[in-house]
Design goal:
By secondary structure, this protein is of the alpha+beta class. The protein has three domains: about 50 residues; about 150 residues, no CATH class; about 100 residues, Orthogonal Bundle (Arc Repressor Mutant, subunit A), CATH 1.10.10.60. Helix 8 links the parallel strand 3 and strand 4. The protein has a five-stranded mixed beta sheet with strand order 1-2-5-3-4. The chain has 16 helices and five strands. Helices cover about 50% and strands about 10% of the residues.
Length: about 325
């Protein structure tokens, strides 16, 4: 941001004073600022310089440009439509950096940045990081949900301050990637865009926190946990392992599932029941083997649980269903 002041020949002293960032902090490579300080200095810099891109591009993005993109996407029925509108209208502002949405096989969606005129080397990292956070923050706000990330990639080596990245992106971060991009479950794209004009007005009065503070509530967490459990039921993963793989704390895992009317144990039982029925329906695997493959240590405990789920023993359910 200070490079932007230098490019435009302006003095950042008043902005730094209001953000309470001292010369000593600027001179110390190991110093850190708070999220609120970043919000303050970003907003004041963008307004004073009248450039929301902070000098990254060949022309300014006047103050309010990114808000205009949000307003243009307000009437979209789903997140997928909103993002496509956002990215299409962004080309009217600048062609230096394009944003693309890709949806591939296997239910994986990717937001990728295409650098047509890369920012100056000293500003490139902050440009790419900020743009991915702009998009991710807007997406979370539009659907009122954390959009959990499968992977985040940056096309540069890990910087000395690389420990900051996991605080900004709720997903595994990889440096040295071919491009700046983040991947997520494509089902988020079908979630409804839930904001109205009043919510938009309120958000734009303080939009920058969306680029700093990740959302906590994940409206697809239960579905993600179901998938994680189904991938490895035999290992019977405990709450700590499920939470780690879902990218949340154990406490948040239980709280968010409860808000969705679900529980980890209930999802485990559901996944075990569905997989057990699928294996039994094939008619080949012995009941003892089915029990092992869905995470039970004994055939007896599996039979007891299965009766609780269906009212039948595994053998009785298989006989009633008949040949596959």
């Amino acid at each position: 941001m200070l490079l932007a002041f230098e490019r435009y020949g302006q003095d950042p002293a008043e902005v730094l004073r209001q953000a309470q960032i001292t010369p000593a902090e600027l001179a110390d490579p190991a110093s850190r600022i708070t999220a609120r300080q970043l919000e303050t200095v970003s907003a004041l810099a963008m307004q004073q310089l009248d450039d929301e891109a902070l000098g990254w591009f060949s022309r300014r993005l006047p103050w309010g440009s990114l808000g205009m993109l949000c307003r243009a996407s307000l009437g979209a029925p789903t997140l997928g439509v909103a993002l496509r509108r956002w990215f299409r209208h962004h080309r009217l502002l600048t062609d230096d950096l394009r944003i693309e949405l890709e949806v591939g096989e296997g239910g994986r969606a990717v937001v990728a940045l295409v650098e047509r005129r890369p920012a100056a080397p000293a500003a490139r990292e902050f440009c790419l990081l900020s743009y991915l956070r702009f998009v991710h923050g807007y997406a979370c706000w539009a659907i009122d949900s954390r959009l959990s990330l499968l992977e985040v990639g940056f096309p540069f080596e890990r910087p000395p301050h690389g420990d900051v990245y996991p605080l900004l992106f709720p997903g595994p971060v990889r440096f040295g990637a071919p491009r700046a991009a983040f991947a997520f479950d494509a089902r988020y794209l079908d979630l409804p865009q839930v904001r109205d004009a009043a919510a938009m007005d309120a958000m734009l009065k303080r939009a920058l926190p969306l680029t700093v503070r990740p959302y906590r509530r994940d409206r697809l967490l239960a579905q993600r946990v179901r998938r994680l459990l189904a991938e490895d039921l035999a290992a019977a993963p405990v709450a700590e392992e499920v939470a780690r793989r879902a990218g949340v704390s154990v406490r948040s895992l239980h709280r968010h599932l409860r808000e969705e009317g679900a529980s980890l144990q209930g999802l485990k039982d559901e996944a075990r029941r569905d997989q057990a029925q699928a294996l039994l329906a094939r008619g080949a695997a012995p009941v003892k083997e089915v029990a092992r493959r869905v995470g039970f240590r004994s055939e007896k405990s599996f039979a007891r649980a299965f009766r609780g789920w269906t009212g039948l023993t595994p053998q009785g359910w298989r006989r009633r269903r008949g040949p596959a």
